[in-house]
Amino acid sequence: MKQTIAKNGLILGLFAVITSGLIAFTYFGTQEQIEQQRQQTLLAILDELVSRNSYDNNMAQDCVLVTSQAYLGTATPQHIYRATLAGEPVAAVIETTAPNGYSGRIELVVGVTKDATVSGVRVIEHKETPGLGDKIDLRISDWVLGFNGQQLTEANASNWAVRKDGGQFDQFTGATITPRAVVNAVKNTLVYYQTNKDVIFSASNECRLQSSIQG
């Protein structure tokens, strides 16, 4: 009887070890695939926001990590990817967060040229209501393209709001909170960029060893 129990215990133990090994193998294999997909998505977004013909560095591997909860919406470090031509600044793509979406945080990237003109905005992740707040997603609506070519100045700062708040950006029928959060996030990101542009482009590269993308 004792031998049978011991044998069964050994079998169960071996089964647990094998199962754990398979789970770990699957996890790390999946993580690698997820990272590869994330990097390919990043590369595609960079290409959308900054023309490849305008810079000669590997933008996906040239970045700095910054933290500004006041202007970038989170205490988590955010990436700023830098485009340069012959070593001179051309544009940057800044990760930022709208912390006050209707259904929580909205993760964005904001492309800006050297003179702080918006080259594009993309929503990376959100949990906004389908059919209402999800119009911030370019796959659903072209609303986000309204930022293209915009600048933030002292003279037009009051226009950086949704129309309901006296600004120039459309809100969505039945969903004002979501576009308001995105507009504010983009505006704050531009303030951060204008204030820190020289530091952003002079700081040491922190992405060279983080990415395997070949641009």
From TrEMBL:
Belongs to the RnfG family. InterPro entries: FMN-bd, Ion_transpt_RnfG/RsxG. The modification FMN phosphoryl threonine is found at T176. Residues 101-193 form the FMN-binding domain. It is an enzyme of class 7 (translocase). It comes from Paraglaciecola chathamensis. The chain crosses the membrane at residues 9-29. The keyword GTP-binding does not apply. Its cofactor is FMN. It is found in: Cell inner membrane. This is Ion-translocating oxidoreductase complex subunit G. It comes from the Bacteria. It is a single-pass membrane protein. The lineage of its organism: Bacteria, Pseudomonadati, Pseudomonadota, Gammaproteobacteria, Alteromonadales.
